[in-house]
Amino acid sequence: MTFFKITAGLSLVAGLAACGHPSNVPGDKSMDYGINSHHLSTMKAGIWVDPNGCDHWIIDDGLEGYLSARLDPYGKPVCSGTAGAPNTANGPFKKGSPIPDPARSINNQPIGNT
After folding, report:
1. What whole-number distance in Å separates Cα of residue 92 and Cα of residue 60?
2. What are the C-alpha distances in Å from 70 to residues 31, 48, 58, 81, 85?
3. Domain residue spans of the chain
4. How many CA atoms lie within 13 A of 37 on its CB side?
5. Tens digit of pLDDT for each residue in 31-47?
6. What is the mean pLDDT of residues 41-61?
7. Are 55 and 49 in contact (CB under 8 A)?
8. Distance of CA 108 to the CA centre of its chain
C-alpha cells in the first residue's frame, strides 16, 4: 500500500511540475499588473521588522502586497534596531492605493482581531 501512495504522490508532483503558469508573467517586477495597474514607486512603503530584528520594505495594495528585504549598499540585510519591535509594521504602507483593504470595514476601522 505504501508503494502505491509513494507512486501516486510522485506522479502528482511530476504532473504539477510540468504545468506552466496559466498566463504570461511579466518580467518587470516594479509594476503592479492588477486591477489598478501602476508603478510601485507611486505607492507608500512602510517597514516591517522580522523576528530577528531585520527590516523589510512592505507595501499593502488592498488585495495584494509586496515585501522585500531592506539591504545596505553591499547587499547585506539592514537590522537597524530603530524601526520598531520585532513582528511589527510601521509607516504609511496602506496608503497610495484606492483599493480598500478587505480586512477593514467601510470607515477604515479594524474588524475582529486584525
Report:
1. 9
2. 19, 10, 10, 13, 16
3. 40-114
4. 7
5. 776 666 777 777 888 88
6. 86
7. yes
8. 21
